[in-house]
Amino acid sequence: MSKKGKNALRRRNVHYNKEAVDLKKRISRINEAISKKDLNALRRLATTGPGLVNDGLRRLCWPLLLHYRNHSVETSQVAHKDENQVSLDANRSFVHFPKGLNDQQRKQKQSVLYEVIVGILRRQPNLSYYQGFHDVCTTLLEVLGKGGAIKAGENIAMFLLRYPFYL
Questions:
Q1: CA spacing 20 to 30 A to 24: which of 56, 90, 128, 143?
Q2: Is 150:157 a contact under the CB 8 Å cutoff?
Q3: Domains, the chain, ordered by start
Q4: GO cellular component annotations, sorted alphabetically (predicted)?
């Protein structure tokens, strides 16, 4: 290998190692902010650079940032007026993400997504379903699971109801 090639390889390795060290420092700062419940630091870390890095850290941060704790989620049995539209959108979900789902897995995820969104709407009957909310709930479901997604999605929807200019 030429001297020029070796120098280029060294620069790439130094750059790669620097990124790994920076990521470790970021993870350490995230963990510190979680332990201190420092919401300002968590918001800053979530919205800059590589964000919250991975789903494990998101599972710890999102409940703090969205002001909820994991606890049982009870929903009303009274149907919501938008459940038909929710069904249509849920049935169109999980086609491209996550990759590699077979039909049975996709149908299972669609069913749980429907339950999450309907759970939110039944808990807050004054809410209306809007196009794209299924995408928000899909992300919450993939990271937080069903119970966490219902509570986090409810808090997001209630926030947007109070402050619609964020839409």
A1: 143
A2: no
A3: 3-54 (no CATH), 83-166 (1.10.8.1310)
A4: endoplasmic reticulum membrane
Tokens of 14: 């130094």
Which among 149, 76, 85, 80 is positioned nearest to 112, based on CA atoms? Answer: 149
**Contact assessment for residue 139 and residue 111, using Cβ atoms and an 8 Å cutoff:** no
Could you write out the three-class secondary structure of 134-157?
HHHHHHHHHHHHHHHHHHHHHHHH
Tokens linked to 149: 């997604």
Please give the Cα distance from 100 to 105 (Å, whole number): 9
**Burial per residue of 73-89, b for 16 or more beta-carbon CB atoms within 10 angstroms, e otherwise:** bebeeeebebeebbeeb
Residue 37 identity: K
Name the nearest CA neighbour of 115 among 107, 103, 126, 105. Answer: 107
Q: Using CA atoms, how far apart are residues 13 and 45, in angstroms rounded to an integer? A: 26
What is the rounded distance in angstroms from the CA atom of residue 29 to the CA atom of residue 35?
10
